[in-house]
Write a structure and sequence with these properties.
121 residues; globular; alpha+beta; single chain; seven-stranded mixed β-sheet; 60s Ribosomal Protein L30, Chain: A
Length: 121
């Protein structure tokens, strides 16, 4: 019988962990939303979220250059271009992940965008 790959968890809360790492190699981040900039423009919310993603990935030895997949939820698809302007300036050329973006009702009216990523370590 083989031993299951280990799972590391960071930022463990009663409902979720901020970061989970499977097998020491694949990093899963919880959905990231703006906290300081909730209610601000989509540009400002996206900038805060991407900075948080940078910090979380760096804390476990990864980076945006190692992104594998991103899922972006927008409360209104009319904000797609505004979010993409920030995303396109942030994501490293030649290292763009697989990505999906769709409209979803987020859990607070002040939130306009949520980003979920998976990265290699």
């Amino acid at each position: 019988m083989t031993t299951p790959a280990p799972i590391e968890r960071y930022g463990i809360g009663p409902r979720m962990s901020q970061i989970s790492i499977h097998g020491g190699e694949t990093v899963y981040l919880a959905g990231q939303v703006a906290k300081a900039k909730a209610g601000a423009s989509i540009r400002e919310q996206t900038e805060e979220i991407l900075a948080n993603i940078d910090a979380h990935l760096a804390s476990v030895g990864s980076s945006k250059a190692r992104l594998l997949q991103a899922t972006i939820l927008l409360s209104d698809m009319a904000n797609f271009d505004e979010m993409n302007a920030v995303w396109d300036a942030w994501v490293p050329e030649g290292n763009t992940p697989g990505r999906a973006c769709y409209e979803a009702k987020l859990n607070r009216a002040a939130l306009g965008v949520e980003v979920i990523v998976i990265a290699a370590r």
